[in-house]
Automatic annotation (TrEMBL):
PANTHER family assigned: RIBOSE-5-PHOSPHATE ISOMERASE (PTHR11934:SF0)
Enzyme Commission (EC) number: 5.3.1.6
Key word Isomerase present: yes
Protein name: Ribose-5-phosphate isomerase A
TM helices/strands, residue ranges: none
Name of the gene encoding the protein in the UniProt record: rpiA
Molecular functions (GO terms): ribose-5-phosphate isomerase activity
Keywords annotated in UniProt: Isomerase
Function: Catalyzes the reversible conversion of ribose-5-phosphate to ribulose 5-phosphate.
C-alpha cells in the first residue's frame, strides 16, 4: 500500500480521499468510451492506474477479437498487464509519435489542467503524453475540481538530491512529504523518489511548474498543463465527453 509519511509521523492512504460508491462504475464507463477512439493500426500509449486498467482490459478484449494495435506502456505495471492480456507492445523509441494516449488523472480543473502521478508513473506518463498526437483523459466525477490542490502534487526527484530539494520546497512553503511504500522510500520505475507537495491556493500553475523544474534534482512534476484533447468523465451511470479546443 502506498502511504505518505508526514513530519508528524502519521500516514494516510491516498486512494481513500474521495469515498464514493459509484466511482468504480464511473471509471469503467469512461474507460469503455475511450477505447472507441482506438482504430486498427494505431500506436496507443497506455496510462497507469485503476482507471487506465479498465481501459487496458477493454483493449485486451478488442485485441483478442481481432483489433490490430500496438501499445506503448507508461509503467512496468501497465506493461505487465498488457502482456498478460496479449496486447503487443513496443518501446517509445521505436515509434515516431503515438497516435493516441489514454490515461487517468488525480485531479482536473475547469481549464483542463491536471495533477497526475498518484500511481507514481508521472515521468513516463508525461513523456508519452508529450509525444502523442492526441490525448484522451478518463476520470470518475470525483476528479473534477474547480482548482487543483486538494490532492498533493507529486514530484519525481533524484534520491541523492532529495533532502536538498526538500529544503527548497519548505522555503517555498510547499510542505513536501516523502512518499513511502511499506516503510521504505517509494521508488519509481526510474528508481527515483517522489515528494508530494501542497499546491493548494497556487494561482499561476505555469510559473509554479517552471520554478519547481528549476530546482536541481527535480526530474519532473505531475502538473500536466495543456495536454488534454478529450476529457471523458464518468458521472452517475453515464459519460460526459468534452473536446478541448487547444490552440
Ligand atoms: O497519474 C496516475 C498514475 O501515475 C494516474 O492516472 C492517477 O493516479 C489516477 O489513478 P486512478 O485512475 O487509479 O485514480
Amino acid at each position: 500500500m502506498i502511504s505518505y509519511e508526514c513530519s508528524q509521523f502519521n500516514t494516510f492512504n491516498a486512494k481513500e480521499r474521495y469515498p464514493m460508491p459509484n466511482t468504480e462504475k464511473e471509471k469503467q464507463l469512461a474507460a469503455e468510451a475511450s477505447v472507441k477512439f482506438v482504430k486498427d493500426g494505431m500506436v496507443v500509449g497506455l496510462g497507469t492506474g485503476s482507471t487506465a486498467e479498465f481501459m487496458i482490459r477493454q483493449l485486451g478484449e478488442k485485441v483478442a477479437n481481432g483489433l490490430s494495435m500496438t501499445g506503448v506502456p507508461s509503467s512496468e505495471r501497465t506493461a505487465n498487464l498488457a502482456q498478460e492480456l496479449g496486447i503487443p507492445l513496443t518501446p517509445l523509441d521505436k515509434v515516431d509519435k503515438l497516435d493516441l494516449y489514454i490515461d487517468g488523472a488525480d485531479e482536473i480543473d475547469a481549464q483542463f489542467n491536471m495533477i497526475k502521478g498518484g500511481g507514481g508513473a508521472l515521468l513516463r506518463e508525461k513523456i508519452l503524453a508529450y509525444n502523442s498526437k492526441f490525448n484522451v483523459i478518463i476520470v470518475d466525477s470525483s476528479k473534477k475540481v474547480e482548482s487543483l490542490g486538494k490532492f498533493r502534487l507529486p514530484l519525481e526527484v533524484i534520491p541523492l538530491a532529495h533532502k536538498k530539494v526538500v529544503d527548497q520546497l519548505i522555503q517555498l512553503g510547499l510542505n513536501p512529504i516523502l512518499r513511502k511504500l511499506d516503510n521504505s522510500e517509494y521508488r519509481t520505475d526510474e528508481n527515483n523518489f517522489i515528494l508530494d507537495i501542497n499546491i493548494s491556493g497556487q494561482k499561476n500553475l505555469k510559473d509554479l511548474n517552471t520554478r519547481l523544474l528549476e530546482i536541481p534534482g527535480v526530474v519532473e512534476t505531475g502538473l500536466f498543463l495543456d495536454y488534454v484533447n478529450v476529457l471523458i468523465l464518468g458521472r452517475a451511470g453515464d459519460v460526459e465527453v468534452t473536446h478541448v479546443n487547444r490552440n
